[in-house]
């Protein structure tokens, strides 16, 4: 059974939800929960990135690997954390590049829904993880599903910006059509950011491309948090 997510994504991805690999993935997740393992994010947030950013609204794609595996962090958007959670190191570096590129002061939170609601698809390669076990759900089927998401974005009529940070993201979107703008750099992790992420100016380049094609600039400045996150609608289980 497919989750209750945005109807445009549901229609586009129905063949994936009907595929045997998704049934196997669902069985795996059911078994993990039955064994008492904690899975992040919450089930209703697994498809949060898709729910917030319908296909025809996608203007930018940012790819992550898998969700944060600490309690209370992940909520379905790559690089983003829930309100009240300390900003992770990679996101700190993203904020530093935003300041250098566009002069935007870093916010005091790491909640990126403001970007997602403007058409920035914040998609992880794998959509679930076991608490404390990074990459624990790798190879279980999510990669095939998110490949299908990328294929759907690639086929959109309007041009899109792909921000590919690190070799993993670059491999994930290797077949993106050249009519889209593909921006590549190293990952913003503290281990690699000084090797080319800082100074890449991806945010201003993305906005220039979007404006050139009549799609409007992204407001990358994150507003202060004055309300809790709205719950997601979808769950596979």
From TrEMBL:
<keyword id="KW-0326">Glycosidase</keyword>
<comment type="similarity">
    <text>Belongs to the uracil-DNA glycosylase (UDG) superfamily. UNG family.</text>
</comment>
<keyword id="KW-0227">DNA damage</keyword>
<keyword id="KW-0234">DNA repair</keyword>
<feature type="domain" description="Uracil-DNA glycosylase-like">
    <location>
        <begin position="51"/>
        <end position="210"/>
    </location>
</feature>
<dbReference type="InterPro" id="IPR018085">
    <property type="entry name" value="Ura-DNA_Glyclase_AS"/>
</dbReference>
<dbReference type="InterPro" id="IPR005122">
    <property type="entry name" value="Uracil-DNA_glycosylase-like"/>
</dbReference>
<protein>
    <recommendedName>
        <fullName>Uracil-DNA glycosylase</fullName>
        <ecNumber>3.2.2.27</ecNumber>
    </recommendedName>
</protein>
<keyword id="KW-0378">Hydrolase</keyword>
<keyword id="KW-0963">Cytoplasm</keyword>
<dbReference type="GO" id="GO:0004844">
    <property type="term" value="F:uracil DNA N-glycosylase activity"/>
</dbReference>
<feature type="active site" description="Proton acceptor">
    <location>
        <position position="66"/>
    </location>
</feature>
<comment type="function">
    <text>Excises uracil residues from the DNA which can arise as a result of misincorporation of dUMP residues by DNA polymerase or due to deamination of cytosine.</text>
</comment>
<dbReference type="Pfam" id="PF03167">
    <property type="entry name" value="UDG"/>
</dbReference>
<dbReference type="InterPro" id="IPR002043">
    <property type="entry name" value="UDG_fam1"/>
</dbReference>
<dbReference type="InterPro" id="IPR036895">
    <property type="entry name" value="Uracil-DNA_glycosylase-like_sf"/>
</dbReference>
């Amino acid at each position: 059974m497919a989750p209750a997510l945005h109807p445009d994504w549901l229609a586009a991805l129905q063949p994936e939800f009907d595929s045997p690999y998704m049934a196997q993935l669902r069985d795996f997740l059911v078994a993990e929960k039955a064994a008492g393992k904690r899975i992040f994010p919450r089930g209703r947030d697994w498809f949060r990135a898709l729910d917030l950013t319908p296909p025809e609204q996608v203007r930018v794609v940012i790819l992550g690997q898998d969700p944060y595996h600490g309690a209370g962090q992940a909520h379905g958007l790559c690089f983003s954390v829930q309100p009240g959670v300390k900003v992770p190191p990679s996101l700190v570096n993203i904020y530093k590049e935003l300041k250098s590129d566009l002069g935007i002061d870093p916010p005091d939170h790491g909640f990126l829904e403001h970007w997602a609601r403007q058409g920035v698809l914040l998609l992880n390669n794998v959509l679930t993880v076991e608490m404390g076990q990074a990459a624990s759900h790798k190879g279980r089927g999510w990669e095939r599903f998110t490949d299908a998401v990328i294929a759907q974005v690639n086929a959109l009529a309007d041009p899109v910006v792909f921000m590919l940070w690190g070799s993993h993201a670059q491999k994930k979107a290797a077949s993106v059509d050249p009519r889209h703008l593909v921006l590549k750099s190293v990952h913003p992790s503290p281990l690699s950011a000084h090797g080319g992420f800082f100074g890449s100016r991806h945010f201003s380049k993305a906005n220039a491309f979007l404006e050139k094609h009549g799609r409007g600039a992204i407001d990358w400045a994150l507003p202060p948090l004055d309300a809790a996150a709205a719950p997601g609608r979808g769950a596979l289980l």
